[in-house]
Amino acid sequence: MRVSLSCGRLFSKCLSFQPRAVVSACRETLLKAHAVSYSTQPGSKDVSLSFASYESTQAEDQRSPIIILHGLFGSKNNWKSLSKAMVNATKRKVFVLDARNHGESPHTDEMDYILMANDVDLFIKEHSLDKVAIIGHSMGGRTAMTFALTRPSMVERLVVVDVSPVTMPSIVVHDNVLVNHINSMDTVLPQLSPDMSSPAARKEADRILANDIPEVAVRQFLLANLQKGERLYEWQFNLKALKRNLPNIIQMPDLKGLTYDGDTLFICGGDSPYVSKRDHDGIKEKFPNANIVYIKGGGHWVHADKPAEFLNFIKEFMGDGTS
Questions:
Q1: b/e for 190-226, b at 16 or more Cβ within 10 A?
Q2: Domain named AB hydrolase-1: which ranges (predicted)?
Q3: What are phi and psi of 202, to 5 degrees?
Q4: Which terminus, N or C, of the chain has the lesser number of Cβ atoms within 10 Å?
């Protein structure tokens, strides 16, 4: 397996998932790194996204590559282990992108699903790709749906992970959990001394976040984005822009009359509130060939909670290149 990636941190649950077959069968080579860009760009301009790519060292597969889009507060590094496993399982090349205002992609003032779909379009053109298979989780899932609905001819097949085009759960809309997360993270940086070591800063940040965020896994996920800048500690994502544009992230764009008729798979967490049975009719209206599955015991990060089961669905849906 050849790997092209920019450096970053892993989401702890995905870090623990290291399939033996993948590790033993593949070799990993750093081909190129992309410079980190934190400059604020005009929001209406398409953004060149930072990415990691993975491919087999065996005969090149001519089928459409897979593009993976992460969720809010995430990055391409959350998907590193699963991306390697997907290459092994499907024999397709895999690209994992950092969304604007996340990871090592540029920071912009504006952010919504139309803009993020435009960024994906630019990435595909920059890399001279034809059709692609897209996998998107949560925010990335809504970007993937927006892209498929507005550019159906460019999408060979679509996987949406634990998010609905119809509704968002009350914990997001009414309980303001995302706003609370952002406000909590906003209090962290002023309390971190630049003289702190990275482990000490992370420990102190975790203590501060614990006042508002009791879930250890959520705090670990967010803290994967804490890093030492040139002088001070900083969040890798653009917290100010995320807070300002949160309504655009919670709300799916109005794409009335548009459908994507290609093969579509919704993979949902059995314990997650994000895709309810009441959403199924609305999903089928936009994606008439959608199959909706639930993984028992999986939460909103179902791919991290149940990686083996998730990968089995991906392999079955994408094929393994043998036929």
A1: eebeeeeeeeebbebbbebbeeebeeeebbbbbbbbb
A2: 65-307
A3: -65, -40
A4: C
Listed by start position, the domains of the chain span 2-169+254-318, 172-244
Amino acid at 60: E
More confident residue, 29 or 174: 174
Question: Across-strand partners of 66?
Answer: 94, 133
The model's pTM is 0.87
Summarised one tens digit per residue, pLDDT across range 199-209 is 999 999 999 99
- Mean pLDDT on 106-119: 96
Q: Helices marked H in 160-232 — which ranges?
A: 170-173, 177-186, 198-209, 216-223
Phi then psi dihedrals of residue 284, to 5 deg: -65, -30
Calpha distance 3→127 (Å, rounded) = 16
Token couple for 275:
């895709």
Chosen CATH of 2-169+254-318 out of 3.60.20.30, 3.40.50.1820, 3.20.20.70, 3.40.630.30: 3.40.50.1820
